[in-house]
Amino acid sequence: MSGKRGTADGSQTAEKREAKLRRQALVYVQKLTKLYPISRGLFREPQLLHALDDVSFYVRHNETFGLVGESGSGKSTLGRCLIRLTEPTVGQIIFDGRDLTALSPVELRAMRQRMQIVFQDPYASLNPNMTVREIVREGIDVFGLAKTRAEGNDRVDQLLSRVSLDPAMATRYPHEFSGGQRQRIAIARALAVEPEFIVLDEPTSALDLSVQAQILNLLQDLQEDLGLSQLFISHDLRVVQYVSHRIAVMYLGRFVEMGPSDAVARRHYHPYTAALFGAMPLTAAEAARRPQLKVVIKGEPPSALEPPRGCAFFSRCPNGEAGLCDTEVPRLAEIVSGSHHRVACWHPEID
Ligand SMILES: Nc1ncnc2c1ncn2[C@@H]1O[C@H](COP(=O)(O)OP(=O)(O)OP(=O)(O)O)[C@@H](O)[C@H]1O
Ligand code: SF4
Ligand SMILES: [Mg+2]
Questions:
Q1: For all residues of the chain together, what is the average pLDDT?
Q2: Closest approach atom of ligand 1 to CA 74
């Protein structure tokens, strides 16, 4: 490993820094792992699919944290685990100082008001038999957020206006709306319970390009106006970079690089991140600003049913070292002490 990566942690010890981050974060995740048992027939033990492997990170108050990675890398599993829609196998999720994995069902139910999710498919995520008013109102009623019926209705109208939908359309059903409008309804529904944290799981991937931009702008405005914390998931690096303060790149259930969005865009160190950026068309300004590491990756990722012993990227990596990379899992470590830019690689692309 490069000498740069071994640098001691300035005046603060790593432990002190971590404790401070834990106090300051809204969501603080430690060593999160999710294994799905896959049946192999009646008389055989199920095989374990490693969807998420030893993931640690945090989301600050008022911050959008972006997750990017190819299909099957574990993005949705992570998002769902964070709000306990999926049960993690191992690990801790601390939300505003409380361990979500240790809550009773009643405590968890109350906590759900504080965290919401918006899914990719606006056609599947809205109940076709409910009017828009009923859809947006449901959470308000469940959590008793309106004292009277009229107050609840006013709140629905305000929410629809906030996502640029005409409140007069509240009596209509989801099939009467376009994809972009449905996603606005889903966003209004998520906001209705006044959450602090929202998981946005590919919220624009199913939409036309022009509509995508409108929804992204709306989400950014809402994040700033309401001071929300968000986990923004996408396979589209440009989108993630556009909306996120910090990003993480996922590969086969692990984070391979994580850091401030601008810093990772300016200079990326993991060969997989370099390949993602290398595949992204650059504007002239971007091309002038940062060196383009041309890493072209071939082949498919290994199976999550039989993850490799060492670095999961070894089979596709131009820098892989047999005997090291294929036996030892590289730890996510800071490139430069204090930079919060981390990479998991034995031979990061350092000049
Ligand atoms: N309920 C489940 N049961 C078994 N395996 C699952 C389940 N959900 C996800 N997986 C597997 O876990 C791995 C991670 O899936 P996940 O959906 O989290 O990936 P993703 O990064 O969100 O992919 P995509 O970009 O396609 O949405 C994949 O191998 C997937 O097949
Ligand atoms: S650890 Fe080795 S195989 Fe993995 S990305 Fe780095 S150089 Fe490539
Ligand atoms: Mg997904």
A1: 91
A2: 18
Residue 304 CA, closest ligand 1 atom number: 29
C-alpha triplet 231, 345, 229: angle, nearest 5°? 10
Ligand 1 centroid to 58 CA: how many Å? Answer: 22
**Percent of the chain at pLDDT exceeding 70:** 93
Domain boundaries, the chain: 3-266, 298-333
Residue 7 has pLDDT above 60, yes or no: no
pLDDT in tens, 98-150: 999 999 989 998 999 999 999 998 888 899 999 999 999 999 999 999 999 99
Q: Which CATH architecture has domain 3-266?
A: 3-Layer(aba) Sandwich (3.40)
Query: How many CA atoms does the CB half-sphere of 323 hold within 13 Å?
Result: 0
Q: How many A from CA of 88 to the centre of ligand 1?
A: 13
Q: Identify which of 34, 77, 87, 305 to mutate to test ligand 1's pocket (most ligand atoms within 8 A of the CB).
A: 77
Picking from 183, 257, 201, the residue whose alpha carbon sits closest to that of residue 75 is 201
